[in-house]
Design goal:
7 helices
Length: 155
Amino acid sequence: MHDPRDDLAAEQPAATPTEAPDRKASGPTVVDEAARGPGLRDFVRRHRGLELVYRAGVAVLGVAIVIAGIALIPLPGPGWLVVFAGLAVLATEFAWAERLLHRGRDMFRAWTAWVMRQPLVVRALLGLGGLALVVGAAALYVAMRGVPGWLPVIG
């Protein structure tokens, strides 16, 4: 089988030791991907029944990740990151999810830029406000459900 990279190498001068290493060392190229043939998504796209099952599976997985992320938002940790990950999963199959993901990224970047322009006092107050929300959520949980059994006994 003819490798198109051989034609490309013949047109370019030989690399000197100070130049970048050969392309083959850096991983697969678009040509390599095309030579492997159709992937799983192409196979699924050709079979209508499989495509519906695949899209439903992506939808269920993406929605589950988004719901888990929403549940994690008030807790310390990567709540919003998990929400964005769920939207990224959904965006692989649904245009509305891709638009929502881009909108969310833009809003997050705008919020971050706004916070960074604020004086240190305002940023500290925002951080304390977030901490107060977390402590309040924990206190509400303890008030409603009691101290969790996995928490070590204090005292």
